TrEMBL record:
Keyword Nucleotide-binding among record annotations: no
Keyword Transmembrane helix on entry: yes
Name the UniProt record assigns to this protein: Tetratricopeptide repeat
An annotated Gene Ontology molecular function: Hsp90 protein binding
Length: 290
């Protein structure tokens, strides 16, 4: 018997021993037996791919996916048209979390063995995971952070055009409104402007609005306060205007409800203990509209 034949026979014997150990569940000893077969087999032995495939299977049982992947790669390189070798590659890739690699291996396996139902089922599962991650897999199976869309700020010219177009559209809609609707819009804008103004004024640190706060009612009816009393005043102004009241009467109503800046001072017009006392010359809190 030639040396080559003897080495081939020894390798085959070690391989059979490893297969028996594998069936018995002794995967660690099976790895040793398959390693012996790989070591003693001639370099051109056509069964080397089988020995690497078997050792890869034993490594997979031991959860050593990296070693299994190395053996599986050697196997498919030696016998690229052997479906069993690609099944080892796919299993190792799945254990490593490399779903993209597993997908390619399963596709190759199915192209060689179209009747392999298990391979088709595993391929569907891999593709579902890839679709869930939103990426075509990465070695290690880490989640791929989606790219953040970039937003560019518009130029001042573009912003100016947009604002002008918005104002033009708003004016067009305003002109189409009925007189009642236009008055309602004016009231709403007045309230908004007043609220913005008062908050900016206080933010700038000017403090209280009047040196004579003691002359104001302390029950929430004071001038400039946006309260139920102010809302009633706006409604009263609206109906007075619709009834044809003069501007002087409208101003008087606004003053009475504290919408002009005078507020309801104690002593103004007979209110409180300072009956008949003249107004404080504009030192009252700012009104809602005037």
């Amino acid at each position: 018997m030639s040396e080559r034949a003897a080495r081939h026979a020894a390798a085959k014997t070690a391989k059979e021993r490893g297969s028996a150990l594998y069936r018995d569940g002794d995967y660690q000893e099976a790895v040793k037996a398959f390693s012996e077969a790989i070591k003693v087999a001639p370099k051109d032995d056509e069964d080397l791919a089988v020995y690497h495939s078997n050792r890869a299977a034993a490594y997979l049982r031991l959860n050593d996916a990296r070693s299994a992947k190395k053996d599986a790669d050697v196997c498919v390189k030696a016998r690229p048209l052997w479906a069993r070798g690609w099944s080892r590659v796919a299993a190792a890739c799945e254990m490593l979390g490399d779903d993209a690699g597993a997908e390619k291996a399963y596709e190759k396996l199915i192209s060689l063995d179209g009747d392999n139902v298990d391979a088709r089922r595993s391929l569907r599962a891999v593709r579902e995971r890839l679709a869930t991650r939103g990426a075509r897999g990465r070695p290690g199976g880490g989640f791929k952070i989606p790219s953040i869309p970039r937003f560019s700020m518009p130029s001042l010219a573009d912003a100016g055009v947009a604002v002008a177009a918005g104002i033009s559209m708003a004016k067009m809609r305003y002109d189409r409104m009925s007189p009642n609707q236009q008055l309602a819009v004016k009231c709403i804008l007045g309230v908004v402007i007043y609220m913005v103004f008062t908050r900016v004024y206080r933010f700038l640190g000017f403090g209280r609005y009047s040196y004579y706060d003691d002359y104001y009612d302390d029950v929430g009816f004071g001038g400039g306060g946006f309260s139920l009393y102010s809302i009633i005043g706006v409604v009263a102004l609206y109906y007075a205007h619709k009834s044809g009241a003069s501007w002087w009467n409208l101003l008087s109503i606004a003053q009475m409800f504290g919408l002009t800046g005078g507020g309801r001072r104690r002593g103004y017009g007979g209110y409180g203990r300072y009956g008949g006392m003249p107004g404080m010359g504009g030192f009252g809190r700012p009104g809602m509209f005037f």
